[in-house]
Design brief:
224 residues, binds cobalt (II) ion, alpha/beta, Beta-carbonic Anhydrase, Chain A, 46% helix, globular, 2 domains
């Protein structure tokens, strides 16, 4: 017998009720305070991958993390969606940190690396393919695909940090003296841990040096 699909997704409503109850049990004013204001200090730009839930992996509560996620955590200069999130976070919420967080084993990055056709998303992932071509020498022809993929996941984060730094939104914020730091992080699905890739930028003059330092670390992998 074919079972009927759960058209109302009762389980999710049930989970939601349990979650809301547990929050109120911990703090009876929790939702009252959230309604009054949100004051996150961090903007998270991460991958849409369901295994990388932003709030959970840094153990932050609702109200503490402003989030933008897309396939392969890409920041494109003409993406009005991402730019609007960035602008709102910086100009209106006054967040202090932008965290670009990739993850190892990213399917989007993998598709860009091996040229796998997905569909419409191929056009989006072409931005990652550009990163791949730009840094071909760091990806090592003889490396197994898995290692190459993980290296491209890192390089993609670093390039997206550069893109964030180059937006008019971030440049204007630094110009007017707003304290704002951009971070390059990567998450491992295998152990649930975050790693800082070291491109941490809090002013307009630092980006070039930080990128040079960071890419120098990949020189070891280059063919001689
Ligand atoms: Co991903």
């Amino acid at each position: 017998m074919v079972t009927q699909p759960d058209v109302t997704l009762d389980k999710l409503f049930h989970n939601n009720r349990e979650w809301a109850d547990s929050m109120v049990k911990q703090d009876p004013d929790f939702f009252k305070k959230l309604v009054a204001q949100q004051s996150p200090e961090y903007l998270w730009i991460g991958c849409s991958d369901s295994r990388v839930p932003a709030n959970e992996i840094v153990n932050l509560q609702p109200g503490e993390l402003f989030v933008h996620r897309n396939v392969a955590n890409v920041v494109v200069h003409t993406d009005l969606n991402c730019l609007s999130v960035l602008q709102f976070a910086i100009d209106v919420l006054g967040i202090k940190h932008v965290i670009v967080c990739g993850h190892y084993g990213c399917s989007g990055v993998h598709a860009a690396l091996v040229g796998k056709r997905i569909g419409l998303a191929d056009n989006w992932l072409h931005h990652v393919h550009d990163v791949c071509q730009k840094h071909e020498r760091y990806l090592g022809e003889v490396l197994p695909t898995r290692e190459k993929l993980n290296r491209l996941c890192e390089l993609n984060v670093i390039e997206q940090v550069a893109n964030v730094c180059q937006t008019t939104i971030v440049r204007d914020a630094w110009e007017r003296g707003q304290l704002l730091t951009i971070h390059s992080w990567i998450y491992s699905l295998e152990d649930g841990l975050l790693r800082d890739l070291g491109v941490t930028v809090n002013g307009p003059d630092q980006l070039a040096d930080k990128l040079r330092e960071s890419f120098a670390r990949y020189e070891d992998y280059c063919p001689t």
